[in-house]
Amino acid sequence: MPTKLIFLGDYCAAGVGNPTLAPDLHSMLSTADVVCVNLEAPTISREHRPSPKAGPSICQPASALETCKRWGVTHFVLANNHIMDYGVVGLHATLGQLNEENFFGAGLSFERAYRPCFLEAAGKRVALLAFAEAQFGVLQSNSDREAAGYAWVDHPQARQAVRNARAESDFVIVQVHAGLEMVDLPLPEWRVRYREFIDLGADLVIGHHPHVIQGGECYKGKMIYYSLGNFYMDIMLRQKDAGSGGAIVVTIEPDGLKSEFIPLCATLSGVSLDQSGKGEADYKMLSEKLTDEHIYLHEVQEICDKFWKNVYSQYYSSALLGLGTQPRLRSAYGLLRHLAASALKGRLFNGKSNQLLLVHNIRIETHRWVVERALKKSTGSRV
């Protein structure tokens, strides 16, 4: 008897909408044995003080998580850049609404954050793992072993976790929260890392964080989906750059694992299947770009050059010169432009905030790789 698993992208219902599921999507989710979503923000009141960081801090009421459960969500990914926005208090409040068996990717200890979630499907044992790039709240070193936070995609323990899961399971599914936001192509560095997870034993790799869908590719007979985009992010749906999203439907049978990308459509009022054909066409087009190395690398370089010129060069200056009050979340591109412009207008943060902004740029893999690619081209460096 086949078992169906459905994976959804980023979810945060901060309270500006009252979302419902359209009948077509509700019907699809109801056929699944497992429905997994990336819980993009802790469930805690805004009355609590957020942790120090650069960029926006977001949270959602406890009712948001209960809505997910009513929709049929059974498992929650916690490895993302916002789950620790309100520190250990926020994570602890979120875990209070979850069972020990239905979350993965973060925890109140190093060991728990890197621990897989195991489930039975069609008589097979399936391991679910989740990691994220090095943003605020990451468990990045061995000294963090008693601390709370989320699992880092570039920590050696992430690779060991995949190896261990391979030895203990019939199928391994890895999710990664990483990439350049509002950009529909993955960086080559992320493609290398996602393929590495396949080499280590993963049967399927699913990405999210860019808030838009990206393409997919088959590597050594295993699928990699680079970004599911958003499932439902009401704070973004109010903005011009609302993002896009999709779902991965996985069927596990005694003889193997199959997966399919399904485009979704979200508005403030809720989520439905995308019947327009646009999401499907976009996914196919982006997947085809990944197969043409020349076109793909050319477009990636154009993206990096644009972000260096219009965002990062000013962003680094902002961290050194100081900047103003924290902006509202709109998009990654708009956020970075706002931070840079604030410095030029002379609105100052204190020295600690400036240092946090520098950490934000230097530590996060995506930011560092974009800048490196742009500077290599502009300087003619081969290093």
Give your account of this protein's structure:
The model is unreliable at 323-330 and 339-349 (pLDDT under 50). The chain has helices spanning 23-30, 62-70, 87-95, 110-113, 156-168, 188-200, 234-237, 278-291, 293-321, 332-344, 351-363, 365-379; strands at 3-12, 20-21, 34-39, 75-77, 103-104, 106-107, 117-121, 124-132, 138-139, 149-151, 171-177, 204-208, 216-219, 222-225, 230-233, 245-253, 256-267, 270-273. The chain is an alpha/beta fold. It contains twelve helices and 18 strands. The strands form three sheets. Strands 1, 2, 3, 4, 5, 15, 16, 17 and 18 form a nine-stranded mixed sheet that branches. The chain has two domains: 3-291, Purple Acid Phosphatase, chain A, domain 2, CATH 3.60.21; 295-379, no CATH class. Strand 3 (34-39), helix 2 (62-70) and strand 4 form a beta-alpha-beta unit.
Radius of gyration: 20 Å
Write the CATH fold name of the largest domain.
Purple Acid Phosphatase, chain A, domain 2
| Fraction of residues in helix | 25-40%
> How many helix segments?
12
**What structural category do the secondary elements indicate?**
alpha/beta
Give the DSSP E fraction (strand runs of 2 or more residues): 15-25%
Distance between the termini: 53 Å
- Whole-number count of domains: 2
- The CATH architecture of the largest domain can be given as 4-Layer Sandwich
CATH superfamily of the largest domain: Metallo-dependent phosphatases
For the report, how would you describe the main beta sheet? 9 strands, mixed
Topology order in helix (H) and strand (E) letters: EEHEHEHEEHEEEEHEHEEEEHEEEHHHHH
The average pLDDT is 90
Given the C-alpha coordinates, what overall shape results? globular
Extract low-pLDDT stretches.
Answer: 323-330, 339-349
Q: What is the total tally of β strands?
A: 18
CATH class of the largest domain: Alpha Beta
